[in-house]
Design brief:
The structure is a single chain. The protein has 361 residues and is α/β, with parallel strands linked by helices. It is 37% helix and 14% strand. The protein has 10 helices and 13 strands. It has a 7-stranded mixed sheet with strand order 2-10-9-8-5-3-4, sandwiched between helices. It has a two-stranded parallel ribbon with strand order 1-12. A two-stranded antiparallel ribbon has the order 6-7. Helix 2 crosses helix 7 and helix 8 runs parallel beside helix 10. The radius of gyration is 21 Å and the shape is globular. It starts with a strand and ends with a helix. It binds pyridoxal-5'-phosphate.
């Protein structure tokens, strides 16, 4: 089989060593004669995986003692509703910065269970950039302020997080968690579906301040209350053990490769290489995104016509590159170049892009 370079937005490419390790361990994991999938989530062997993944996340992100890592199910989409259920009090509201599809979905759920308010938006400009601090209209009494750190569909990303004063800052980091070192302790809550940057689908990572959980709304259904997961270290019921096992493998790979600082270096090299090809292409490739808001995870671009875009995607596929079609809601092309995509894969893509522009420009 020849090399496949996987540019899908999610589920997305995983580091080869994390997959190889699973392949080796599935028949006989930790000398149990079983795979992790078949083992009790109350076993000592599983504990090593569960707490291993939690501790690696804490270590990689430099979390303080007030921050706890939880493993949930239902994807980031369930967090859209669970967050306001737990934290918007009767008569209160939360602030949302509207930067595209995923923020809009988060806001929609907030308005189903409580009340959400738009505190900033780039909708008038087609979500081509991230609103800056001066443009935000923040409510000092908001239950929290919510941002989407990376906009997977529009290809924009926060490079500086907003200052929300004493209002708790919350972020959906589904498509860029762990892409670089950040001050994660600034956030009251971070959530991310694992299937973009840290593992397979099936587990949702929540990083939350324990002191905030103490102030959460009481009386919610057990499985919709953060307190349940916090009190039992995400072992109240059966967690998605195989997904968490894969996350652990990915985090060990990440740590072994030099952690987040090394990851950022590679990610910047990948993004700069790809954006550089646009600059040098005399307009053949164009980015709809403002320069200061460009994403290093999801690089969206256009070609001169939809016909050329379809030809580009088909010819790329023929040489082993999959997932380059843009999201159905926006069209165009998109290369998702998450942590697990090596620089070599982006080099392969950019070589192809230069050749394609020469042949079709
Ligand atoms: C993919 C994505 C989601 C949806 O995640 P699910 O786990 O499928 O619910 C939410 N937010 C962002 C930023 C995403 O990229």
């Amino acid at each position: 089989m020849s090399q496949t370079w996987n540019f899908y937005a999610g589920p997305a490419t995983l580091p080869a060593p994390a997959l190889e390790r699973a392949k080796d361990e599935i028949p006989n994991w930790e000398n149990t004669g079983m795979s992790v999938m078949e083992t009790s989530h109350r076993s000592a062997e599983y504990d090593v995986v569960h707490y291993g993944a939690m501790n690696l996340l804490k270590e990689l992100l430099g979390l303080d003692d007030d921050h706890q890592v939880l493993f949930l199910q239902g994807g980031a989409s369930t967090q859209f509703a669970m967050l306001p259920m737990n934290f918007i009090p009767e008569g209160g509201s939360a602030d949302y910065v509207n930067t595209g599809t995923w923020s809009q979905k988060a806001l929609k759920e907030a308005n189903i269970v409580a009340s959400g308010r738009i505190a900033g938006s780039s909708e008038a400009e087609g979500f081509s950039r991230i609103p800056n601090q001066a443009e935000l209209d923040l409510d000092p009494d908001a239950a929290y302020a919510h941002i989407t750190s990376n906009n997977t569909i529009k290809g924009t990303q926060y490079h500086d997080f907003p200052d929300t004063g004493s209002v708790p800052l919350v972020a959906d980091m589904s498509s860029d968690i762990l892409w670089r070192p950040i001050d994660a302790n600034r956030f009251h809550l971070i959530y991310a579906g694992a299937q973009k940057n840290i593992g397979p689908s099936g587990v949702t990572i929540v990083i939350i301040r324990k002191s905030w959980i103490e102030k959460a709304i009481q009386g919610l259904p057990t499985m919709l209350s953060y307190g349940t997961y916090s009190a039992k270290d995400s072992l109240y019921n059966t967690p998605p053990t195989f997904s968490i096992y894969m996350v652990r493998n990915v985090l060990e790979w990440l740590k072994g490769n030099g952690g987040l600082a090394a990851m950022e270096k590679t990610n910047r090299a990948k993004g700069d290489l790809l954006y550089g090809v646009f600059e040098d292409s005399a307009g053949f490739y164009s980015s709809p995104v403002a320069k200061d808001s460009r994403s290093y995870m999801n690089v969206v671009f256009r070609l001169p016509s939809e016909e050329l875009e379809a030809k580009f995607v088909a010819e790329a596929k023929a040489v082993g590159m999959v997932g380059l079609k843009g999201h159905r809601s926006v069209g165009g092309c998109r290369a998702s170049i998450y942590n697990a995509m090596p620089l070599e894969g982006v080099q392969f893509l950019t070589d192809f892009m230069k050749e394609f522009a020469r042949a079709n420009g």
